[in-house]
Amino acid sequence: MLSNKEKLTVDADLTVEDNADNNKTVSRQEMKQVEASKADTIKGQVSEISEELATAAQHLIGLNKAVSIFGSARTPRNSFYYNKTIEISKLLAEAGFSIISGGGPGIMEAANKGCFEADGHSVGLNIKLPHEQSDNGYQSDSLYFKYFMSRKTTFFMNSSAYIMMPGGFGTMDEVFETLTLIQTGKAHYAPIVFVGSEFWSGLVDWIKEQLLGCSYISAPDLDLFIVEDDPHKILQYITDKHEEHCFDVNCFGLK
To answer: How far apart are CA 84 and CA 114, in angstroms?
Structure first.
């Protein structure tokens, strides 16, 4: 049953009752105008997303050995994980890997900083947000996005490996989208490393007990990632996996 604020008529118009019991009639023509406006908005956004993707693809066309590092923008500079990220990033840069981050503060800044200080290729995929996001000063290549969709696609199309540092909702989104794309074969294979065993242990236990235990994933899916805290072992793991897969014609892009 419709409320006293709204009711549909059986004729050509939509009738809406406001709180003063005065009927306002919206014609089909007005509804068509709303629908057309919605369609124009979506078309405009699709065009902008396509333009962002094309710009990023052209800008990063020479990027062929890169590690994406995800983690919280709220991580303070004096924290253990901030400095751990710098160490890992620096080792990877010294081994010839470019580093891609979200370009903001916290873990993103640490990822760019370690690479930048090692004279590596430090890429920032920046996005404007109502809060938190401010560009860090350690980017040798900076790209700017309006939409998360084109930004995340750029990560997945250019990464040879992924490092997951501790983080919040945004990091969890990146973690599970990375796992999903690789699990389903919609992205090329790339090693995934969870850094911070104390932080990730609860989530990993839940994945094993609930997702695997309820048969929502398969046992081989657990091999999509490792948990490792030693920066040198992380470097060795990523280097070995890169050498194993780098000559695969499908080692970049989405499928």
So the answer is: 10
